[in-house]
Design a protein that fits this description.
It is a single chain. The chain is an alpha+beta fold. Helices cover about 30% and strands about 20% of the residues. It contains 13 helices and 16 strands. Strands 1, 2, 3, 4, 5, 6, 7, 8, 12 and 13 form a ten-stranded antiparallel sheet that branches. A hairpin with a 2-residue loop joins strand 2 and strand 3. The radius of gyration is 27 Å and the shape is elongated.
Length: about 450
Amino acid sequence: MTDNTEDRSRFIRARQRDRAASIVGFSANLSPAIEQVGIDKLEVSVAGHWICHSGNGEAMFRNRLAFPDVQWFNTPQASPQSMTVSMSRSRNGSTITECKVRIASTRSQQGTININLSVNPTRTLAHLLARFGNELSPAELWSEIASLSPVSFFAKAEAGLISSSLDGSDNWLPATRYVRDRLGGDPWEHFLPIYVDRLRVVCNALLMEALVDPANEPTNRVPSPMGDVSLHWGDVRVSSVETYFERYHRHAISTVRRGGNALLAADHSVDFWRYLPAATSFHRENARFSVSMKLPGTRRLAIYAKLRDRLRFEIRRKGKGDYSRLASPTDGNMRLLGILEQERRALLGAVEWEAIGELFAGPDHPEIADIETLIEQVCASCGQEASFAAEILNRLLFDGAITEADVPRAIIGNLRKRGIVDRQLIRVRDINGRTKRFALTAPYRDVHLAIVDGFNTSSGRS
């Protein structure tokens, strides 16, 4: 290391590689490619209207709001002015998590429809892959998937074909190489149009006695002799969406803990959690620790071990999205598909992924000489303000960072010039009103982590 220049780590971190080369290995250069970005949980709502040609809504929907071949839904509940049906918890054999349909003004000849869905494209794709054998070529497999009825498309695979991830879920795909061999280059580019179409058709099937192909228009008009139903997919709302990419890491669980400690030091508002050996969560808001990393707007960054050897990097958007740049839809699938594609692209620039990768990269194995250099550089940076040296060392060694509220800006400037601390710009835009934090750089950051790890190890033995 040098004394007066910003020093990058003198150690080369070993890239975390899967021996079978089946999934991209973790490295400090974390930036994902668009074909690696998937869609996880979605909260979708769509409104519509209905009109009957004779009688009223009660008669029109009496034999609807269910699938004849499966018992995925509870018995519809009727009130004087509406009918409501929701998905069964005990008999739900689909990959749709929640579905609630409300038909209003059922004693009239026309009324409104509201459908709220909680769905997960990753989960559905995982079950589809588990259900089909390995004999089909990518083209044949896509043809089979696209030809499935809506009920078959969303049906679960047999129990045991998909093991649970560390969080107890089945929303994860096989290794990237296996998925690519079965589905081709960018599976999401092919799968999302089919998924959106099947989701629209499954909602139609709930509202009709017999499945009728809808008109190819944003209002999704489905005519029948008894009455017409329209769902306004051109105005669909996505109140929550999760996009993600994954990396192989031999020690994913411990990496989350170490990376979480580095984030806690580098940023002013952070959550992180791990699933083993016990589910734990950490959160700090400035100097206050409690339980979540908020990004500007309605997004959050989540990083966790999905499997023991797989890290997931996830951007979660909850609340209204900005879809003003999307073109006006000309068919029933265009709006929702455009939203999902925009969210996938948004992940690429949601945070400074290289900064995240650097913080989560493996340790540099600091030496006693690094501690000596850290102490010397802190003392030299304080100059005439030597009284701050002890406080700065205490903060850096045990918290991994200092803030403008701790010491004069001039000292922080000296520490930055000497390459001891720097701002870790993780968000594209910072959160207003937060105190700026200046975290240790490598390998000094690993001095801090080694101390934290040492105390944690000692506590575990006592």
